[in-house]
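COURSE: Structural Biology Practicum
ASSIGNMENT: Worksheet 4, Part C
STUDENT ID: 0417
INSTRUCTIONS: Below are two proteins. For each, the amino acid sequence is given first, followed by its C-alpha cell string. Answer the questions at the end about the second protein only.

PROTEIN I
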Amino acid sequence: MADWMKKNPGKWSGFLSKTEFPVLPDYGKVVYGGCRGFAKGIMSWPQDLIIGGAQEGNNQIKSAEALQSVFLVASPNDLFLRFKDGVRKHLKPSLNAALWNMTTAEEVIRTWQRNFTHNLYNHEWNFERDAEGNVASEHRRVHPLASTSIADMLEEFCQFNYTIIFVGYLLMLAYALQAQMRHHGCMLTADSCVGLAFAGVLTVTFASIAGLGLATWFGIEFNAATTQIVPFLTLGIGVDNMFLLLHNYHGVVESVKEDEVGNLMKETGMSVLMTSINNILSFLAGTLLPIPALRGFCAQSSILLTFNLVAILTIYPAIISLDLRRRKSTRRDVCCCVVADESLISDDGYTLGIGVKPHLQEKRTVGDSVPSYHNLYSRNEKEDDVEDDVKPWTLHAFLRHYYIPFLKRGTTKVFILLVCVCFLVAGLLGMHRASYGLELSDVLPEHTAPAAFLKARDRYFSFYPMFAVLKGPNIDYAKDQHKIDNYRRSIGRSRFVVKVDGGEPSEKYWLSLMRTWLRSLQTELDRAIAAGQINVTSGLVMGEKADFVGLSNKLSAAVNIAYRLTCSFGHKYDCSGRIGKVRLVDESGTINVDGFYNYVTAWYNSDSMMYHVSQASFFPPPPHWSYEDSSAPLFVPPAVPFAYSQIPFYLTGLTDTPIIVEMIKEIRAVCDKFANEGLPNFPSGIAFTFWEQYLHLSSNLLQAICVIAFAVFFVISLIICNPWAAGVIMIILVLMTIELAGFLGLAGIKLNPVSAVTIITAVGIGVEFTAHVVLAFLTSLGTRERRMVAAVDRVFVPVIHGAFSTLLGIIMLAFSEFEFVVKYFFVVMSALIAIGVVNGLALLPVLLSLIGPPCEVNPVDGTDRLAPPPALRRKDNKRHIQEMQTHRRNDSDDSNTGTLGPENCSTMLLIEPPRDSSSGSGPRLVANTHARSASAHITV
C-alpha cells in the first residue's frame, strides 16, 4: 500500500480527504530537546546524544550536521545465559545447545559487530555514482564503530611492517657504508671499513631481534609503539657506538703496533658503556609512567639497547680483530683476496702515533724520573695550530678550517650564550603554553573506519558513556539501598551528566527499575487480596490445595510472582502472617530487606528486558528461576551478593582534555566520598580509561625525570670519578629537557604520556651529545681554551655521524600509518637530535672553555706540553726512534681518561725532520690532541 501511494500521489483523493493526506513530520520540533520512543519512560534519548552541529531557534532545530544512533549489545555472559539449557530454543531452533558456551557467545557477538560495521561502512550513501551507476568516488557519510572495530584494526596494524623496516635498515646500511668507504679509483683501499660498517649494522640488527625475542619470552606484548617505533629507534641509537668505534679504529691502527683491538676498547669502550647505560636507564625510567602500553614500549627498548650494548662490546670487537688481520696484510676491503699495490700504501715513516692511553683513577704529576709523552707529533713553530692535513670538502675539513676558528672567537661565545639563553626562555614560554591532551583519533591509523568515526564524533558530539561500578561482594545491597540511591543522585548532580526532566540522570538503573517492577506487582497482589483470591489469614490461594506447587491458574502471572515473592525471604518460604502485611516496597521506597535478594532473582529472570536496559551486568548472575515452570517449587531462591554491578550515565560537554580532567576530578571526588562511607565503588568508561592518567601525569613525569637525572649524574660521576664534569653534563641535559618540553608547546604538540616518554628518554639520549665532548676535554692538556679545541676536534665527526644515524634510523617513522607515531616520536625525536647537536657541539664547548673541570694531568713545569724526549740521532736523513722498554702497570685503564701513569706499551716513534733548515733548531715535540699518552724511555 505504501509503495502504491508513493507511485500514485494523485489518486489519494479517491479515498482520503486532504486533511487525511500523509504529512511529513516537522523533525525540527520532534527532535528538539531529545526524542522518546513508544515506551516513553524507558526509551528516551537526549538531544546531545543524537543530534550534532544543531542550529536552534523558536524551540525547534532549524538545521543539523550529524545524526547519531547508539545500539546496546548484550554482553557475552548475558547472551550465553539467554540461550543456556535450551530455555529459548524456539527463538533459535537451529542452535545446538550442546555446543553453546561462553566462548561461542563471545564469537557470535564479535561476528555480529563485524558484520554491522562492514555493512554500514559499505553503505551506498558512502559512494557517489556516475550516470551509469558505477562508483565514481568515495564520500564517507555513514561512520560505524563497534567495540571490535578498534581491536581488529590495532591487531592488523600492530604487526611488523617488514617492508618499512627493510627500507629503513637499508638506508642506515647505505649511510654506514658510505661513511666508512675509502677508495682509490673504483677499488676500495686497505684502510677502508665498508665491511666493518656492514657487519656493525648486522650486529645491531641481530641483537635487536634477540632482544625482541627475550621481551616476548618475558611476556611483554607487542603493540603499536613496539612494532612501529622500537626497531627504528634502537637501530638509530645502536649504530652510534659503531661509528664511534670505527672513528677511533683508524687512529689506533695508525698509532699502535700491537694489541690494537685492546687499545681501541680502552680508548672507546668506557665512552660506549657510559652512553649506553644512560640510554638504558632513561627507558627504564619511562616504565614509571602507569600506562601499560608505554611501559611495555620502554621495557622492550631497554632490553633491546642492552642487547645492542653487549653485542657491540663483545661480538663487534671480534669482527674488528678479523678485519685487522686483513688490514695488516694490506688486502683490500671487502675484496680480501686482492692485495693493495705498495704504491697506494701510506708511508707512516714520518708520522708519530702513540695510541696507548694509560688509566689513572686519580690525578698524577709527571716527573723527570719517568718521562711520559702525551699527544706527541712533529711540527715546526709555524704549525703549532695546524695538525696533519685533511681532505678538502669533508666534515673534518669544515671542522678544522671553519668551525673551530669560529668557535674560538670571543664574540662567537657571547653569541652562542645569548642564543642558548633565548632558547631557554622560549622553552620556558613553550612549557607555559603547553596543554594536555591526546585525541583518540590520533592513536589510530589514518583512513580507517574507526579513525573516521572518532574524528566525526569529536567534531559534532561531546558526550561519553560512563558507569558507576559498585564493587562487592562486601556491599549489603539490601541495607544500603538508599545509600546507593544517594550515590547515583550525587553523580547525577554533576553538570557533565546528561539529565532529563526533573534533573534525573537520563539513564535508568537497575535498583530503580526493580523497585518500579515490585511496586507494580504489589499493586496486582493488593487487588487480588481485595478480590478475595487469597486468604490473608492463612496465606493460601483460594481454590488451591495447601501443598500446591508451580503456577496457580487461579491467579494472574503478576499475582503469581508477587505471591511467591512475599512468601520467599532468605532461604525460607512461609506465607503465614506475610500476605497483606509484608510489603515488597514500603512507602519510603525501601525494598523489603529480608527478601531483597529473592526479589533480585525474580526480577532478573522475569523482567529481563529491563535488566538489559539497565546495563547492570550482575556478577555473579542470579540463579535461573521461572514462574512458568509448573513443576518448580513456589520458593524463589536468593541471589548471591554481587561482586560487580554498574549504574549507567551519559556525560556531555567533554570538548577537550582540560574539561574532561575537570569532570574526572569531580566524579572521582563523589566516588571517593562514598567509598569512605563504606560503599566501595569506582567510575568506569572511555573518558576515565583514556584521560584519568592526566590527573597524575605531571607528578609522574617529574618523578621519572628526577630519577633518570639522578641516575645519569651518579653513573657519570662513578665512571669518570669527576662530579664537576658530571655537573656540567647535567646542566646541558636540563637545558635540553626544558627546550624539548618548550618545543612541544610552541609546536602545538600536546603533553601526554606518549610525549612524556620522549621527554624522559631525552635525558638519557642527550648523553650521546655531551659525554664524548666532556671525556675528550678531560683527557687533553693545556688551558681550557686549548682543551676545548682539542675535544671538539676529536669528537665532532663521530657525534655528527651518531646524530645523523639516529635521525636516519627514525626517519621511517614519518611514513607510519599512526598519526601519533609521526607527531610524538618522529617530530619530537628529530627536534631532540637538533637540540642535542646545538647544545652538545656549541653550548657545551663554550661552557667548558669558561667553567670546565681542570685537566687530570699537570706537567711539573707548569706548561701545557710534556717534557721532550731524549736527544735523537740522524741516520740517512731520516730519524728512527724505536722504543721497546716495558714498564709495569700500576693502575687499570680507563678509556677516554687522559691521565698519565706507568703503562706497558710498545710503540714506534718516528719524527719528521724540519721542512726548512732556516727555521731554527731541530724538531719540536708538542701536544697532539689526536694521539694518546704513553710512559716510555726513548732510545735511538
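PROTEIN II
(use this one for the questions)
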Amino acid sequence: MLVRLLGPLEAIGEDGVPLAVGGPRARALLALLALDAGRWVPVPRLIDGVYGTEPPGSPRHAIEAQVSRLRSRGISVEHGRSGYRLAVDPEAVDVHRFTRLAAERAAERLRAALDLWRGPALADVAEAPFAAAAAADLEERRLAVVEELAEAELALGRHRELTVSLASVAAGEPLRERLHGQLMRALAADGRRAEALTVFARLRDRLGDQLGVPPSPELVELNAALLRDPSAGAGLTPSPSAAVSAVAGPRPLPAPLTGFVGRTEEVARVRELLASGRLVTLTGPGGVGKTRLAIEAAGSPGPVGEVCFADLGPVEDGVSLPSVLLGALGRPAAGLFPIRTGPVDAAERLVAALTDCRILLVLDTCDRVVAELAVLLRRVLTAAPGVRVLATGREPFGLTGEQVWPVHPLPLDDAVRLFHRRAAAAAPPRALTNGAAAPADAAAVRRICAALDGLPLAIELAAARLRTVGLAELANRMDDRFAVLTRGDRTAAPRHRTLHAVTAWSWDLLTPAEQRFAARVAAFPGGVTAGTATAVEPQPDDLLSGLTEKSLLQRAGDRYGMLSTVREYCAGHLGIADDVHARHARTFLELAEAAEPHLRGHEQLTWLARLDAEHDNLAVALGWSAEHDPVLGLRLLTALTWHGHLRGQTGERAAVAARLAAATATLPDHREEHALAVATAAAGRPAPGPYPPGPPRSPYLPLVRFMTDGPHAGVEFAADPWSQSFALVAAAIGHTLDGDAGPAEPELTAAHARFAELGDRWGRAVALEQLGDIGAARDLFRELGAVADLERLDGLVSDR
C-alpha cells in the first residue's frame, strides 16, 4: 500500500487501485499514522490530533472505531501496548521518501523530492487539529529544498530556467530573503540587472512597511555588488556569515558523558506526554536529575521535527530570554533565512522564527526567569503550532495545557547502582561492583545513598570523594554532608559543583517569607500538615503551596515533607530558635493528648494512624523536651504510653523515658507520670517502683504494672469502663495461672463484650486470645467473619 500526503490524501492498494478511506475523522487518523509510518503512536496523541480540544465522551473508543473503519477498507493498522501504528514501510509514504531524497542534497535527488508534491500538503485534512502545524512544517521543508536546488542550479549555470521558477515561488513568499536573493542572482546572471535591483527594492519596501526591519546585511551586500559590477550574477554568493546563517541549525542536546541509570518508565512516560501535549515541565528539587531525564526523553525518536537545547540557568532576567533562545535556535537577528511574520523586537523575531517550524525546545533550568518565560511561551505556543516545549525547573509555569511531571529521587536500589558506576569511574582501584562488594561495603553504600535521599547529583559527588576518602569514612561523615561533598566536576555549572551550591540555588529562589517558613518547617523531621504547620505560621496555606511548587516540599496526601538534605540546609541556614522547637513540642503534646482517649475506643485505628504518621515528629518533641522542658516531656510520654505499647515502641522510648524520669523524680504533682516514665525506661522489665498509693488516675499505670509484675501484684485498676474491662482479663489470667479455669471463661466473655461495646479492637483481640481453646471461644471466633476490621489489627496484638 502507498500513502500520499503531499497533496490531497490518497491511499493506493497493492493492486494500484485507490482505496476509499472514509470520512474526515478516518482520513485524519490515517494521515496522522502515516506521518509516523512504522512507529507506534500513543493513543493520547491520536486523540489530540484527531479531536483536539473537543474529544467525544469515550475518546479511546472513538479512536478504536476509526481504526476499525480503516481496517475494513484494507488499511493495515496494528494495535499494541504503545498505541497504534500503520503497518507499512516508511518508503511507502511520500513524506518519508521526500525526507530521504532531500537529505541526499544532489540536484537530481532534490528535483525528485519536489516531484512528489501534488499540491499543498494534507490539503483535504486541513481541518484536523494536527494538520496546520504538520502542513506548515512540510511546506517549510519544501521551500528549503527549493532553495537548495536553486543553489545547485545556479552553480550549474541554469539561470534562465531559474528566473521563471524562482519568480513564481518568490511571489508566494514575499518576505523570504534567501529566496529573493537567489532570484536576484539568477536575473543578474541572465543579464537582467535592472530587474534584480527592482526585486531588492521591492523586498526592502515590504520589509520596512510590514515588519519594520531593513534587509539583511548579506542582501544589502548583494545589491551593492550588483550596483558596482553590472556583470556580476550567479557567481555572487552570500558572505561567510550568510552562509553560516543559511546552514546553522538549532543547538543540539548535550551528549552525556556517563551512562543513564534507572528511570526507564519515567523516560517512556515523559515521551508519551510530549507526544500528547505541547508543554511538559519536569519539576523537582536541585540535583534530582531533571536535566538528564529531559535529555534522555528528548533524544529518542518522537514527533517529527528538530530538537533544540537551551540552558537558561545563567539567564538572570527576562529581557534577554528571546535573544538567548534565538541564539540556541541558530537564528541570527537578520540574514538569508525564512522570515514570515513581523520580527520587530527580539521576542517577535523569536515568534517569527518558530511560526512555521516543527521543533522540540528543551529549556533547562528555568528557575530564575519562570514568570517571564511563561509569558513568552504563551506567545510562542499560540503562534507556532508546531512547537513543543520540554522544560525543567523547581516549579511549573502555570500555563493552560501544561503537563507537569514531578521528578523524584532515585529508589534506593537504583541509587546504589548509580553510586557503584560513578565510584568505579572515579576510583578504579576501589571500584565497587554489584555483588562483588564486601557486606560492610554494601551496607556503607546503602547508608550513603539513603542519607543523600537518592539525589543523583549528591550521589555522584559522594562517589567522586572516593579518590581521597575511604568508603567507611565517607559513610560516617554523611551527617556533615555539606562539608564533605565539595568537589564536583570543574567544568559543571557552579550550581552543580557542590551539594551546598545546588541546595543554595533552590534557597535563593525563595522569598524572605518562604525562607523563614522553610527554616521553621525544618524543625519537623516528619513533615507537616496544614494543621500542624500553624504551630510556626498562623496562615500556612499559601506558603505550603509556594514551597511545594518550588520543590522545597514534597506533598504526599495531606502531608508536606522535606528531603533530609534540604531540611539540613534550611535548618542550618538561618538557625532554628528554641521557641520554634517549643512550639513544635507543644503542638505534638496537644495531638498526643487529644489522641489518647480515642486509642481505647471506636476510633482506635484512625488515631493510631495519625500518631504513626507523626512518629519522627513525636520522637524529636520527646528528645527536645527531655532536655529543655521535662514536665512537658513527661506529659507527652504519658499520653503516648498506650500508643507505644500497641505499636511496640516502648523500647525505642526507653532512653528518653529514663532521662525524663531522672529529671522529674522530685516533682510531687507528677508522681504517677513519673512512675510511668520509670516503667517505660525499664522497657518491659519489672520496674523498681514504688508506685504511687491510692486509686490511679491513669488507666495505664495499673496495666503496665500488671504486665511487668504479674497478676498477683495486688494491682488496683482505675474505675473507668475500659480499666474495669481489663480488670476482668487480669482476673481471668490469675485464675488460669492458679489452675482454676472455671471463672476464667465467664470473665473473659464479659471482658470481650465490654470491649466490644467500647469499640476497642485490641481489648476484644486480647480477650479472644486468652480464651484460647476454651469451648466458648468457638462461638466468639465465628464473630470474626462479621468483624472484618479485626484483620486490620496489624501490630495491636504481638507474638500471635
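ANSWER KEY EXCERPT:
Q1: Residues 237-248, 332-344 have pLDDT under 50 and may be disordered.
Q2: Residues 131-155 form the longest helix (25 residues).
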